[in-house]
Amino acid sequence: MVFAYLPVRDLLLCQRVSRHWRSVATSNPMLYTSIDLSVTVKPVTSGSVKALLRYAAENIRTLKIRPPEITFANFKKIIQTGPEFLHHANMHLGPLFKNLECLEQISSLAYSSDSLWSIPQFPYSTLRSLHIATPLAKGRLLLILCNSPALERLECSCHIDDIGRPDQVHSPPPLKVLTLTAHGVLSFSASPSRTIANWFPDLEEFTLRDYHSLYPIDPPLKLKVLRFQKCDYAFILTFPRNLKVLEWSYMPSLSAVHDSELTPLSLYPDLEELCIRNVRLLKREILQNFYPSAKTLRMLTISSPQFEIGDIEHFLREGTNLTIINISQISYVNDTTLNLLHPLVNLERLEIDHCHGVTGHGIIQLISKLAPSRGGRLKAIRAKGIESIRRQTVDWAWKFGVLVSI
Questions:
Q1: Taking a C-beta distance cutoff of 8 angstroms, is the pair 178, 205 a contact?
Q2: Sequence-distant (≥ 6) Cβ neighbours of residue 278 within 8 angstroms
Q3: DSSP string, 129-176
Q4: I need a surface site. Which of 11, 127, 196, 405 has the fewest CB within 10 A?
Q5: Do 360 and 328 form a contact (C-beta atoms < 8 A)?
Q6: Which structural domains are found in the chain, ordered by start?
Q7: 3-state DSSP call for residue 301?
Q8: Pairing state between β 299-303 and 324-326
Q9: pTM of this structure
C-alpha cells in the first residue's frame, strides 16, 4: 500500500482528499507507529495528540520531537508547576510516550532537555534507543542509565563529570551503541572516560565528541567501532581486538594516540573503515601502522594537509576492496595517483578536493576504466577546487553514468 511509505504529516493530508482515502488512512494503526513531530509548523494541540493516539491504537513506538515546550501547545515544565503536579501537568502526553522504544529530541537554540522529564509516564522501561541533542542537566545521565534496562542505543550531550561515576549504576543497560558529547569542566580528581569499559562491557560502537582532557581512553575490548570527533586528545590505552572502524576527525591538538605510537595496531589487520580528517599535528609515520589493514579496508579517508601521496600509496595499491576513497588535501596527488585506482573495480566514490595535480585527462582515464557502463561501479567523483577540470569533462562523465562535482 502506498500509504505505508508516507510520513505521518502526509497521511494526515491524505485524509482530506475523500471519505474513502480517510477510511483507508485511518484503518491501519501500523501506519502511525512512527511519528515525526519535529517538522510541525505550529505547536501540536491536545486534540491532535489524542487523534494520533486514536489512529495508532495508542501503540506509538518511535517519536521525533523538538523540545516539548516548542512541540506541544500549553506545555508546562515541572519548574513552572511544582514537582507535586508531575502527574497532573501534561497528562494528555503520557499515552503518547508510555510505549516508546525510540525517542529522539533534536536540538533547538536556547532550550535544554529539562522539559523532557516533565512528561508523565516517561518510557524508561521500554526505551531501546534514545537520542537527545540538547545538553542533559548534571546527573541526568545517571538517572537514564539506572532506569532504562532495555536501552541499547544512546546519544546525548552530558556533563563530563557524569561519565566518571559508574559506582552509582548497579545494573547498567545492555548498551551496544553510545555517542557522547562532553561538556563542562573536567575535574582532575578522576579519569571519567576510562570507566566506559566498566559501565558497558558489551559496547560495540562508541563515539566521543568535544572531549578536552589529557586522561586516556580505555574502551571495551569487544568494541567494533571507535570514533573521536572534535576532541583535543585521544590517548588509547588498549585497542580492541575486533575493531572494524576507527575515526579521528577535526582534532587540531592531536599529535599522538598511544604511548607506543600505535604499535599494537599491527596486531589488528582487519579494519574496514579508517578515517583521519583534519588532524594537523598527527605524525605522518603513524599511517604505517594501518598498512596491514589495506586489503580489508572498504572506506578510506585520509584528508589532512601534512600527509603526502607517498604516505597513502600502499592503501591505493593493496586496497582491492575499497568502495569509498577520500584523499582530499593530500599533497602531490596527480593523474599518476589516479592510475593506481584503475584496478579497484569495487570503487564507487572518490573525493579529491583541492588536489591540484589532477587534470581532466586523469579523470577521463579513470572513468573509462571504472564507469558502470564499462563494468565498474564508480558513480561519483568530487573534485572541488580543481580548476583544470572543465565543464566538458563533467558532461562527458555524466554520459557514462558518473557524477563529477567541481
A1: yes
A2: 249, 250, 251, 252, 303, 304
A3: EEEE-SPPPTTHHHHHHHH-TT--EEEEEEEGGGGG-GGG-SS----S
A4: 405
A5: no
A6: 33-130 (no CATH), 135-286 (3.80.10), 294-406 (3.80.10.10)
A7: strand
A8: parallel
A9: 0.83
The rounded distance, in Å, linking the Cα atoms of 71 and 323 is 41
CA proximity to 187, closest of 158, 218, 210, 161: 161
Distance CA 345, CA 378 (A): 8
Lowest pLDDT segment from 109-118, 123-132, 204-213, 313-322: 109-118
What span, in angstroms and rounded, lies between the C-alpha atoms of 239 and 223? Answer: 9
Count CB-CB contacts under 10 A for residue 259.
Answer: 11
CB atoms within 10 A of CB 88: 10
Alpha-carbon distances, residue 288 vs 55, 158, 311, 368 (angstroms): 58, 36, 8, 32
Beta bridge partners of 73: none
Q: Which of 108, 110, 109, 118 is nearest to 140 (CA)?
A: 118
- For the CA atoms of the chain, what is the radius of gyration? 25
> Residues with Cβ < 8 Å from 2, sequence gap 6 or more?
none
Phi and psi torsions of 248, nearest 5°: -125, 115
- How is residue 63 written as a grid cell? 517519536
Residue 18's CB is within 10 A of a number of other CB atoms, namely 10
